[in-house]
Design brief:
Number of helices: 6
Structural class: alpha+beta
Order of helices and strands: EEEHEEHHEEEEHHH
CATH class of the largest domain: Mainly Alpha
Radius of gyration: 17 Å
CATH superfamily of the largest domain: Transferase(Phosphotransferase) domain 1
Low-confidence stretches: none
Helix content: 40-55%
Number of strands: 9
Number of domains: 2
Mean pLDDT: 93
Distance between the termini: 53 Å
Largest sheet: 5 strands, antiparallel
Strand content: 15-25%
Shape: globular
Oligomer: single chain
């Protein structure tokens, strides 16, 4: 079967095989082998469970095909389309509002993405979120606020010329997606304040 490397990061290699993506968590030589294997297995299992949860709530994300916690593989659907980072300028307010709404839906189901950048969003009819390798399940407003703050920082760094309108639209969308938005926004102010204090 033909295989093409899509990306190689610090934690994993992504291969495309026909209409599938195989995510392989690679061993770290600097870690004790037994600990390395335990970490990779737990992260592989966690990502697979998140993908299953996303499918259960009909969230636009890759569908899990198979998980192998011996080979540390997660096999999922390949989603064809441009990254949102490439097209955000075409309709910044509407796309940012859709992003915010979908982050709100994730948080309403206690799913924290962990790496909310427009590189991890694919547009195919609607916005699909990808790369749940850092995701986790949490009811904590702090974790949801940090997730939102990371999205805000990503918008400012990657789309600085559109940042003001994109940030405002994303927060508006979030209100529609998460009924508990007020609790998260109250915590978001504190998270943002911590970030400003670190810069001083």
């Amino acid at each position: 079967m033909n295989s093409m490397i899509l990306a190689q990061g610090a934690e994993a290699i992504l291969h495309k095989q026909e209409n599938s993506v195989v995510k392989e968590r690679i061993a770290k030589e600097y870690r004790v082998p037994a600990l390395d294997r335990k970490l990779r297995r737990s992260r592989t299992r966690r990502e697979a469970k998140i993908l299953e949860k996303l499918q259960a709530i009909n969230f636009p994300a890759p569908r899990l095909q198979k998980m192998d916690d011996t080979r540390m593989h997660v096999v999922m659907d390949f989603i064809e389309g441009p990254q949102v980072k490439e097209i955000l300028h075409q309709n910044p307010v509407e796309l940012s509002k859709e992003i915010g709404l979908k982050v709100g839906v994730l948080h309403a189901h206690d799913i924290i993405h962990g790496d909310l950048t427009t590189s991890n969003m694919i547009h195919r009819g609607e916005i699909h979120f990808i790369d749940f390798g850092l995701s986790l399940v949490s009811k904590k407003a702090e974790d949801k606020a940090v997730d939102l703050h990371l999205l805000d920082r990503a918008l400012e760094s990657k789309h600085h010329e559109l940042y003001e309108q994109c940030s405002a639209a994303a927060l508006e969308g979030y209100k529609e997606g998460n009924p508990d938005w007020q609790t998260v926004f109250a915590r978001l102010d504190k998270v943002a304040q911590r970030g400003r204090n670190k810069k001083k």
